[in-house]
Amino acid sequence: MTADDAALRAEDTELFPEMPWEDWLPAKETFHRYVQIVGKVRLAASDRRNHWWNVPFHLTGRGITTRPMGGLGEGPLFCVDFDLVRHRLVVDRLDGRSEELPLEPGLSVAAFYTAFMDMLASLGVEVEIHAVPFDLADKTPFAEDTHHAHYDPAQINRYWRILSQVNRLLERYAADFTGKTSPVHHFWHTFDIAVTRFTGRKVPVPADADPVTREAYSQEVISAGFWFGDEDRPWPAFYSYTAPEPPGLADQRLWPDWASWLDSGSSHLAVLRYDDARTSDDPVETVLRFLDSAYDAGARLTACDERALACPGGVTDPYRKEDRVHDR
Q: Which domain of life is it from (predicted)?
């Protein structure tokens, strides 16, 4: 067994391994651009859903996926997956044809972009994207970016392992809400994973707001998620926010006491740092209670009917005594 294999085995027994932002920043900056390239293809080749639910990635047992797209007489049906166990980018067609690109140290964003677009072309997929990073400080076009070339298999595998555990945790959190709710999904533009609860009320959206914001926040929402950190907040954290933000939200108490409200300019985020959560006595319970406290704060101030929208444990059956689903 190699040292890398031993490290991965150790991480298998650790629910939330440490992930210092500065330690994997070069790998994150490179992989984030890979993900944006594929995400822009997903945006171009999928059918628009309310609140842009068609755009994000979903988790798989080996990495992240675009889910199937295309087809319906508008070109081949295809799917793109990042296999972060074997470290491959895989493009599959419905007819069984497939192309793979090894993800290796030294693979620049420019080389990734060129190879990926060639793979699509060889499979008969015709798609055009705006091939420039979205909301990243360095706007170098993908085809010209030879600077970001720091793919690190161990770091990216750890990112996926953490993402997978957070995905399960957010699924458990989502189960207690019976109203309109988003899938748990991974956003390629902001590199976070989130689930959103809707109170059921439409809200006025400024006409001069950008189209992404107008669609995402056309209804009142309380979101919960996790991000890996950025230059302004160089640490990973769980978060929650209410939009539009009701007056007094940042004055509401959060659980645990070491969670806090973070001023993000025009609004506030409820924040629980990842390192504080993962080193607590019960990380899962700590995060769930944090998210519940942030949701309760937003729901109270927006006069959301929490009782009507609750389904503890994902159950809405009014006559349930004991499920025997495993016997069916």
A: Bacteria
Task: Tell me, yes or no, whether 12 lies in a domain.
Answer: no
pLDDT at 1: 45
d(Cα 268, Cα 198) in Å, to the nearest integer? 18
Rg (CA), the chain: 21
In this prediction, residue 264 carries a pLDDT of 85
Two structure tokens written together for 96: 């069984």
Establish if 6 belongs to a structural domain.
Answer: no
Same domain, 91 and 199: no
Sequential DSSP letters for 262-276: EE-SSSEEEEEEHHH
Please tell me the distance from the alpha carbon of residue 227 to that of residue 272, in angstroms, as a whole number. 11
Dihedral of CA 168/276/293/190: which sign? negative
**263 inside domain:** yes
Amino acid at 81: D
What's the distance, CA 69 to chain centroid? 19
- Pairwise CA distance, residues 220 & 197, whole Å: 9
Tell me the C-alpha distance between 264 and 259, whole Å.
Answer: 15
Three-class DSSP category at 183: coil
The string of pLDDT tens digits covering residues 172-201 is: 999 999 999 999 999 999 999 999 999 999
Q: What residue numbers bound the domain in which 110 lies? A: 17-144
Residue 277 counted as domain residue: yes
- Residues 126 and 272 both lie in one domain: no
| Main-chain dihedrals φ then ψ at residue 160, nearest 5 degrees | -70, -40
Mean pLDDT score of the chain? 93
Q: How far apart, in whole angstroms, are the C-alpha atoms of residue 182 and residue 291?
A: 16
* Helix/strand/coil for 59: strand
Please state, in angstroms and as integers, the Cα–Cα distance from residue 79 to each residue in 45, 70, 84, 91, following that order.
10, 9, 16, 6
Report yes or no: 112 and 126 within 8 Å, Cβ to Cβ: no
pLDDT digits (tens, 9 = 90+) for 118-176: 999 999 999 999 999 999 999 999 999 999 999 999 999 999 999 999 999 999 999 99
